[in-house]
Amino acid sequence: MRWLVGWSSTAAGAVATGSAGATGYDGETVHPVGSQLLWGDPDPLWAVGDWRPDEVRVVKADDQTRMAVLGLCGASDEQLRVGLLAARGGALRHLTAWPGSYTAVVKVGRRVTVCGDLAGARPVFHTPWAGGTAYATAALPLADLIEANLDFGHLAALLAAPDVPAALHDSTPYAGVHRIPPGHALILRAGAREIAGYEPVASLAVAAPPADPDRAVDGVRDALIEAVRARMAAPRHVPDLDPGPVPGMGPAERRAARGMPVPGIGADLSGGPASSTLALLAAGLPGMPGTLLGHGTGAGERLLAVTFNDLAVPGHEAELERAGALAANPRLHHVVVTGGEEVLPYAALDGPLTDEPGPSLVTAARHRARFASGSADHFIGYGARQVLDAHPARLADLLMDRKRRHLVRPVAALAKADGSVLVPARVYGAARRLARTPYRTGLDVLAARLMDRRLDEPQGAVGAFLAALTWARPGPAARWLTGEALAEVSVRLQGATHRSGVGPGQRPGDYRARAALARHAADLRVLEQAAEIRSQRLHAPFLDNQVVRACRALPETLRVQPGARADILRTVLKGAGVTDLPPGWGAPSQAPTAAAARTGLRVASEPLLELFDSPLLAEAGLIEARVVRQALRGAVAGEPLPLDGLADLISLELWLRRLLSRRGTCWTGTPARARAVPGGIVRPRGAVESVRGIGSGRG
Question: Residue 502 — very low, low, confident or very high, per pLDDT cuts 50/70/90?
């Protein structure tokens, strides 16, 4: 893991006089383990972890004005200096408009500004500490700093309503540690904090001007090419030297077995439109696209393309065939990674502790097997579906804009797939109800459903589509929570209706799409930490700020059409000079992810049942162990249960066990300081009453 951490105190005298750390509650001087100091007191800042030299850049205008940019940023040093001077006057948005994925921290006198990203893949956290505010790009270091207990209300909301920002609000799994929303910046002035948005908010009173589809797609193409070019222009990295041969293994097998990526740049090539778009764009840019001459496979200037072939679950044949056809490009070097039952979901229940829990914990071994054969810098297509596709709730947005005729094609495609003539009327009625339902009413309805345990959802594709035509809906794991846990989340939602937030100022479809993107980005962050390969960086250009902005500029009338994502990416590739795509490219993926999950549950049924013999989730009062064990047996037997809900439960249980079994802390110089959750699972009495005050909002 890599993060940055710093703080701002109420007064300059509250911090230590040197640059080694700051004075805590008991007068001790603290500083993070394994850190490099970017600037010292007052208001110090550290970079922690295995940052590459080119990933940490500090520019300075004078003794009182400086900026640190951590991550991959495509701006030149001169652009950074110009940006710093503009930020001195209070401008923020331009700090987030450079190509790449990075975090910018600006210090002007005693004012410190930390910019989060639009998707939520690079979040910012904060907590009150030592008379001021500490901040970081990871929650666990702050939890260690304040010896935080678990936030049981947040854990309940993760299971009961993970797609509802109002239920999670600004909380994290650690009590007292808060998250700033995507598209916002944390501003600290001598310890006092403020959270400010840097994106313009659309008005419900005035309709947005009609967007030109062709110009919007051109914007997506330009943003994607710039995002890929920023990675290609960065310094190439060669992992640690290979310590020597192993009998019976070639260089590539030896690297994979030792967890060493291939030098240079590579990409996933699943056969789907997202990964293949990135691979073809990277391979088509001028210059050396991939591996380095004299290192690795000897492929020279070819881009390494990695395809995963699941031998345990059939059904990927069409995608594999398309991947093979794409890999015929002479600038690509194709590697197929095979995996059997040892990389099924739930096959490996051990792993590293991640900053937060996420469903990706149960599939980390599956992804690690693919990443281990990848490059030191590896492109992945994550996020394309969330930024390009239309959430079902966007149909309500079209009705609000009086664009009914654009509902014809998506509703007709849904009716054709279902085979029922009643589908158009049902979908139109649900979209019309959503368009007329206020945001607060939507939250009240969900709160009542949770309190009354009305959690059954319609079955089938049409049922799932209709269920998504709401402001908020229960999560798939809600059916297995205790009544007290559901009541906690219900109270949080009722408190949210009395708190101003981003929901009321947005259309329902746009609101639901942003929430889905934030959840996906958070889970990708968990996956990066759980499946991390030493010396490797994963790059998801679809989650870059400029790409997200370009995709948000796409008109809704274009998004909702069947096959829109593939059509947009095909146009992007055509504009970049790539026209020779295999037949069937961009077809809806039939990858049997549900079959893989069910097979993994069956293969790992005994360890999973043992996991829930005495689960920590039951000790926390969130579930009853007997109920979950019964659900696991039912899923193994083939009952139609929501498998993603079981993944949420299992991943949260695994994360809690790893958290409580960890040793050490993120801070040094504090012999008496304990780590986060020092007392284990200690659930406060009256937990439902304790969350009634959430309506007041903290931070």
Answer: very low
Query: Could you tell me if 387 and 565 are in contact, meaning their C-beta atoms sit under 8 angstroms apart?
Result: no
DSSP class of residue 150 equals B
pLDDT for 68-97, tens place per residue?
Answer: 999 999 999 999 999 999 898 888 899 999
Q: b/e map of 427-452 (b: 16 or more CB within 10 Å)?
A: beebbbebbebebbebbbbbbebbbe
According to DSSP, residue 355 is labeled S
Torsion, CA 642, CA 647, CA 649, CA 653, rounded to 10? 170
Backbone angles phi, psi at 67, to 5 degrees: -145, 140
pLDDT for 687 equals: 47
238 φ/ψ sector (left φ>0, alpha ψ -120 to 50, else beta): beta
Number of Cβ within 10 Å of residue 249's Cβ equals 13
What digits encode the pLDDT tens for the residues 354-413?
Answer: 999 999 999 999 999 999 999 999 999 999 999 999 899 999 999 998 888 888 888 888
Q: What b/e sequence results for 97-108 when a residue is b if at least 16 CB atoms lie within 10 Å of its CB, and e otherwise?
A: ebbbbbbbbbbb
Q: Which two tokens stand for residue 251?
A: 């260089």
Residue 610 CA, distance from chain mean position:
30
In angstroms, the CA 652 to CA 431 distance is 34
Handedness of CA 583, 326, 214, 390 (dihedral sign): positive
Phi, psi of 284 (to 5 degrees): -90, -10
Residues making up the chain, counted from first to last: 699
Here the tokens at position 558 are 């274009």
Long-range pairs for 23-29 at CB < 8 Å and ≥24 separation? Answer: 23/130, 24/129, 24/130, 24/145, 24/670, 24/673, 25/130, 26/672, 28/669, 28/670, 28/671, 28/672, 28/673, 29/669
Instruction: Using the predicted structure, report yes or no on whether residue 689 has a pLDDT greater than 50.
Output: no
| Cα(491)–Cα(287) distance, integer angstroms | 57
Residue in the structure block whose two tokens are 């030792």: 258
Write the CA distances from 669 to 145, 405, 674, integer angstroms: 12, 66, 12
For residue range 541-566, what is the model confidence (pLDDT) as tens digits?
999 999 999 999 999 999 999 999 99
DSSP code of residue 528: H
CB atoms within 10 A of CB 366: 22
Report residue 119 as tokens: 């998707």
> Where do the H-state alpha helices sit in 373-452?
384-388, 394-400, 408-418, 423-435, 439-452
CA dihedral 156, 159, 162, 165 (to 10 degrees): -10
Task: Tell me the residue ranges of DSSP E strands in 93-249.
Answer: 100-108, 111-115, 125-129, 132-136, 178-179, 184-189, 192-197
Q: How far apart are CA 359 and CA 173, in angstroms?
A: 15
CA 635 to chain CA centroid, Å, is: 27
pTM of the entire predicted model: 0.92
Give the count of beta carbons closer than 10 Å to the beta carbon of residue 556: 20
Query: In angstroms, rounded to a whole number, what is the distance separating the alpha carbons of residues 342 and 244?
Result: 27
DSSP 686: S
In the block, which residue shows the tokens 């193994």? 636
Q: Rounded to 5 degrees, what are φ and ψ at 111?
A: -100, 125
CA atoms of 558 and 565, how far apart (whole Å): 9
Residue ranges of alpha helices (H) inside 576-694 are: 593-603, 605-611, 616-619, 625-637, 643-661, 687-690
Number of neighbours of residue 109 by Cβ within 10 angstroms? 13
SS3 assignment, position 610: helix
User: What is the predicted pLDDT for the residue at 457?
Assistant: 75
pLDDT tens track for 202-239? 655 555 667 788 999 999 999 999 999 999 988 888 77
